[in-house]
Amino acid sequence: MELLKQISFNLQNGFDEAVAELTKEAVEKQIPPDEIMNNGLIAGMNIVGEKFKNHEIFLPDVLLAARAMNRAMEVLKPLLIKDGIPVRGKVVIGSVKDDLHDIGKNLVAILLKGAGFEVIDLGNDVPAEKFISVAAEENAHVIGMSALLTTTMPVMKKVVDMAKDEGLYGKVKIMVGGAPVSKEFAKEIGADAYSYDGANAVETIESFFREDS
Ligand code: B1M
Fold it and tell me: 94 and which of 19, 40, 55, 126 could share a cystine (Cβ 3.0–4.6 Å)?
């Protein structure tokens, strides 16, 4: 079986040790990290999501797959973050309140760090107030929010509204992302941008700085 398919297969089955080893092997074979991520790990995770939706697998299976994904991300992290890049701007990032999904957010944070941004990662289940207070205290350039549940998306609007109330709107760019989020939703709630994946998140934030210069 092709290496990336093996990674996907083992991730779907929650075999974290095998996923970590195969990811190392893929790196040694000089497969680019974004290809390992997209065509191995994320491809596997999407199948896990489909099977979960169709009740073919259950929550503990999803947790095991998430654990395997995290092991592989630890292997890829040093390749995605390169030392010595000057800091280009400050991004406060987190998964919104009541949302425990953080794999995608972590990936976005790794890629932003790798592109030279200072990232303040607030973790998951982050209340709207926290995004606002940290962004203000830290003079952040960007607030990045992730949501994987349709039920937690409204928190994003709460943050935008609070930014307006606190006089941060327009000064701090607000970017949203996550599987159920869309460009239309971002526009509807008044966010500055929507990003569909990690690489696009980096490009989007870079474009904010081009606009400002
Ligand atoms: Co959950 N879960 N889950 N889950 N889970 C989904 C999201 C779901 C779609 C599965 C399904 O039914 N098909 C479904 C949501 C349905 C909906 O809202 N419409 C769901 C559900 C229902 C639930 C629970 C409610 C299940 C339950 O308890 N009955 C529960 C909720 C817990 C909570 O949050 N309160 C739950 C729990 C969990 C686990 C804890 C077991 C685990 C999360 C572990 C963790 O994150 N530490 C989990 C997982 C792993 C998933 C799936 C299978 C995979 C998510 C993932 O990590 N994908 C997911 C199905 C799916 O998405 N296919 C599912 C890989 C990751 C790299 O992609 O996060 O999309 P993603 O991030 C991408 C982009 O979206 C984007 O870039 C990333 C890289 O490409 N992106 C951004 C993300 N954030 C961004 C921010 C940006 C920019 C881009 O700017 C700031």
Answer: 126
